[in-house]
Amino acid sequence: MEYFEELLRRPSIFKDESKLDINFIPDKLPHRDKEISLLSQLFLGLITNPNSISRKILITGKTGIGKTATVKLFGFLLEKASKKRDINIKYVHVNCRKERTSYKVLIKLIQLIDNKFPKRGYSSQDLLDILIEFLYRHDLHLLIGLDELSYLINKHEDLIYSLTRINDDTLKGDQRLSIIGIVRDISCLNNLDNSTMSTLQRNIINFKNYSKDQIYDILKYRADISLKKNVLPNKMLETISEITFSSGDVRTGLNILWRSCKIAESKNLKYVNAECIRQGNQDLLPFSALDILEYMNSQKRIFLLAIIKALNNSEQIEISFNDALKSYNVVCENLGLKPKSHSQVWNYLQEFKRENIIETNVISEKIKGRHAVIKITDLSLPNLEKNTIEILNSKGFKI
Ligand SMILES: Nc1ncnc2c1ncn2[C@@H]1O[C@H](COP(=O)(O)OP(=O)(O)O)[C@@H](O)[C@H]1O
Ligand SMILES: [Mg+2]
To answer: What are the chain's domains?
Structure first.
């Protein structure tokens, strides 16, 4: 009966578990000094000449290599330096994959600077006006981090262009908005307005992948601040670094680290051994995929499950769009759901492709005769299936 007492009596391996959380922003980011220093130089003018410049910077680089963490830490450092000098600069971070439309991003922005702001009842133009008015009234310069920007770009609305126009048209020479956009690579930005595009192209900071040694240093630092001394032998950290290096995504490393420590604790061990790491590394999907799975709507998730099932049933490594549709109809029927339209499902397919979940080759794209082959090569199919079903179950679908 004394579950908590029993657990609390056990010696913990952790000093501060929350510092292994992937959303935790540490005070230091080893091997990103150069990038933070470059950002500081680029934004120095915001402090030396308040409201006289507007910067638009684009950060590119693969998943899990510290883009988000670097920009958030930089935003914090910029706020700190400006506060010291009585200059009013605020950093706000918005993830466009979570907000999805320019409208939602704008609402989120305003709510981040004014937490009493209501959610509904405004047009986009209203919101831009409200934003300008707020910046004036509070004598504020806003640095906006638009993370995972590619998710907005496809919607044929150019938020960056609208925000830039505020600076140019409305503020009578005052510059009160700066932007840092984050994308995986520049090719995601084809739909932007030409002038926005050329501004951004001139100001790209490309984040390089970490080497194996750098990943080791980073995980060592995160382990040092979150674990007690001597619970993670060097050899074990090397193993985790090696596993992490194959995807390059530091989140994988943090997750394996956390799981292995939990497993060591549950076995009453004083330190992490190879078996803990082996178990900690089981059934893991890359974090990028888990994130996407978590935030997609259930209809889309059901279609993904249908693709997985069709691939499982097929003797081939790839299936046709038609096979996926047939499987989808079966899954929907079992769940008592009305399937989404052909073209909606086709759109899901294109989104999966952009999200790097599936690979697909379109053979023909006439409305009635859409032909494509679909395969999943980068992710473990059983793990993807397990995770998809788990999330669907948690949303009340009985698979
Ligand atoms: N240099 C670093 N030092 C410490 N932690 C890091 C470093 N780079 C990345 N991380 C951690 O790895 C995870 C992934 O980084 P993130 O910034 O989310 O990557 P990205 O935005 O490039 O996909 C985060 O939890 C982050 O805190
Ligand atoms: Mg990120």
So the answer is: 33-206 (3.40.50.300), 210-284 (1.10.8.60), 289-394 (1.10.10.10)
